[in-house]
Structure formats: C-alpha cells, structure tokens
Amino acid sequence: MGLNNLKPAEGSKFNRKRVGRGPGSGLGKTSGRGHKGAQSRSGYKYKRGFEGGQMPLHRRVPKRGFNNIFRTEYDVVNLDQLDKLFDAGATVTVDGLRERGIVSSRTAMVKVLARGEVTKALTVQAHKFSGKAAEKLTAAGGKAEAIGK
C-alpha cells in the first residue's frame, strides 16, 4: 500500500453532467429543463417549503395548543444519579454535572428531582429543587443550595 495506489471508493465519484451538447447526449436543446416555466430559466430559486403551488405541509397541518415563548426549560437530574456519581461530602455544582455529561451544556437551568435515594451527605447547588428532593438531601446529612440564574 502506498500513495500511488490510493483511489476513491467504487461508485463514489461521478462524471459531471454535460448539458446542451446535442440530441445524441440525451441532454441537448433544453438541457433537461423541459419547456418554459420558472425552472427552465436561469436564476430560478424556489422558497423554502414550496411544493409547486400545492398547499405546503406547514400550512396544511393544523396548529395545536399554546407555545409559551417565555417558558424556562430545566435539565432534570435525579438523586439516584447524584448518589452514583459523587462521593460523600462532595459539592455538586452545575459545571460538575456538565463535565460528567449528565446535563447538556447548552441548557442553562438545572432542577433536582427526588427519584431514588441518597445514601451520602452531598452539598448540591442547582437552580431548583423539588420539595421531596430537598427533604431527602437534608435527611441524608447534605444540603440543597438554590442558586440564581
């Protein structure tokens, strides 16, 4: 194997379509564009979602419900996850959760929920806690510290 034997995978390279080269080529005269109409002309650009005059999908499908644009989204972390990943006496921060991949890096807020049990004393710093989660953390000898935005 050497640089002189390298070549692309079979079928990955195609010859360029040469249009307007006579009737024998199959792409002569109108060059595969048909007769008249917007697509036969140069500079034609269709709009996103355009379906040739048919009512586009985004207008055919009915709107449902209400989308609150001011809604705050939270990434959810459960107590059983914290119990598994952190040692006793550790301080759990939002950045620590992001580093371990529990929380996605693009979402700003973190909420701790009460699924599972906590067997260690952990100090957890998050944006929000469910009532049960805070109770369980303090019962295990830890702390639930709410941080601002």
Q: Can you give keywords for this protein?
A:
three-stranded parallel sheet, 17% helix, 149 residues, 4 helices, Ribosomal Protein L15, Chain: K, domain 2, alpha/beta, 15% strand
Say how many strands there are.
Answer: 6
Mean pLDDT: 92
**SSE string, helix = H, strand = E?**
HEHEHEEEHE
- Spatial order of the strands in the main sheet? 1-3-5
| Unreliable residue stretches | none
Any idea of the CATH topology of the domain at 74-146? Ribosomal Protein L15, Chain: K, domain 2
The secondary-structure class comes to alpha/beta
> Strand portion, in percent?
5-15%
Helical content band? 10-25%
First-residue to last-residue Cα separation: 58 Å
* CATH architecture identity of the domain at 74-146: Ribosomal Protein L15, Chain: K, domain 2
Number of helices: 4
Topology:
Layout lengths: L56 H4 L13 E5 H7 L5 E2 L1 H6 L9 E5 L9 E4 L1 E2 L1 H9 L3 E4 L3
Parallel strand pairs: 1-3, 2-4, 3-5, 4-6
What does this structure look like?
With 149 residues, the chain is of the alpha/beta class. It has a domain at 74-146: Ribosomal Protein L15, Chain: K, domain 2. It has helices at residues 57-60, 79-85, 94-99, 131-139; strands at 74-78, 91-92, 109-113, 123-126, 128-129, 143-146. The strands form 2 sheets. A 3-stranded parallel β-sheet has the order 1-3-5. It has a 3-stranded parallel β-sheet with strand order 2-4-6. The longest helix is centred in the last third of the chain and has 9 residues, at 131-139. The two termini are 58 Å apart.
